[in-house]
């Protein structure tokens, strides 16, 4: 695991903190934006592109190898993410939703790959860009299919609601659709990856410090506990990484459906 140990005075250990998310440019004196997270994001995108190319460039009647994996991923996204929200429109948006799911999953898994060990979504800019892209498509679809007035009317209309109550309800639902939904989309992914990375770094640094830097009979127990917790948290992270990619794609499908159908 990526371990950061800070020494403020001889023999003193300090837990890793926000320094885990601060990166200098890869090329000294080069572009400030070309950092490790950017390189990992590009690597993840290249891996997804390579997987899809290997799976679907020359499909066979009986899928094998990469095609089997690609078709499994496609079927999962179609049946578990696209169709429940988009219904008959699911196939039209499968390219986008499959790309979102696989890209976020690849970015997340970078956090447990040796020598890389940084989940891209733990850097808030990356999930923000994806969420803003989905948000823009949602609004564009709503305006295109229903017009500005029709789209807004579809969002605020609630059958059976008294007229006087719309003064309270309308601002709340409009804020949820146009403000809150954007933030909840990317913050959920970012917060989980950020916290998971901190926890893994914390326990791995405990193990490294007490087993290698300051090995003592009493400290050995703490070091072993740190190693054990690192393994447990990493296993939990694998599950959370998949779950967060799934939830991010599910929300994307729901937002696309809201634009298409003109409803909140």
Automatic annotation (TrEMBL):
* Record Pfam families: ATP-synt_A
Which CDD domains does the annotation name? ATP-synt_Fo_a_6
Q: Which residues cross the membrane?
A: none
Q: Give a yes or no for keyword DNA-binding in this entry.
A: no
InterPro entries registered for this protein in UniProt: ATP_synth_F0_asu (IPR000568), ATP_synth_F0_asu_bact/mt (IPR045083)
Q: What is its main location?
A: membrane
Q: How does this chain sit within the bilayer?
A: Multi-pass membrane protein
Family indicated by similarity = Belongs to the ATPase A chain family.
**Protein known as:** ATP synthase subunit a
